[in-house]
Amino acid sequence: MFKYLEHQADMGIYAKGQSWKEVFEDGARAIFELMFAINKNQLTVSKRINIKINAKDIAVLFVEWLNELIAQKDIENLVFVQFNIIKLEKENGEYILEAEVGGERFDPGKFEQKLEVKAATYSGLKCGERGGKKFCQCVVDV
Q1: What is the dihedral of CA 115, 119, 121, 125, to 10 degrees?
Q2: Tens of pLDDT, residues 61-113
Q3: DSSP tag of 71
Q4: Where are the domains positioned within the chain?
Q5: Using an 8 Å Cβ cutoff, are 69 and 80 in contact?
Q6: DSSP letters of 11-40?
Q7: For the structural domain made of 2-141, what CATH number should be given?
Q8: Which one-letter DSSP state was computed for residue 124?
Q9: Distance separating alpha carbons of residues 139 and 4, to the nearest angstrom
C-alpha cells in the first residue's frame, strides 16, 4: 500500500506493509505510478535488471533504492513495472538490498508521462513501525 503526501513544491510518498520488502516494493510502485499512467492490463516485461545496494540504515537504503530505480530508468530508457526484492537484510551493521526489476522500453503511445521525478530526497525521510506495520516516507523532487 502506498499513498501520496502533500508538500509545498514537491511530492511526498508513504509506503507501508507487513515487511520491509513490501514497503520497498510499494515505494518503487509509487514512484513509477507518479511518473507514468500505467495501464495494468498492458504491462509486459521485455528487460530485467539486477540491482544491489547497501546503506548504514533502513531509511537511507529506501532513498538509495528509489534513486537507483530513477537512474536505471534514465540509463536504460525503461518504465519499470515489476519489483522483486530478493534480499533485504542487515549484515555486519549494514543493510543490503538485492532486487530484480523488470520493465519495458518507454513508449509514449503506451505510457502517458505524468510527472518527472528527478530524485528521492532525505527531506521528510522517516522509516519505522506503526500499528504493527513497517513504513517509509520521503519527499521526491518533481
Answers
A1: 60
A2: 999 999 999 999 999 999 999 999 999 999 999 999 999 999 999 988 888 88
A3: H
A4: 2-141
A5: yes
A6: EEEEEEESSHHHHHHHHHHHHHHHHEE--G
A7: 3.55.10.10
A8: T
A9: 9
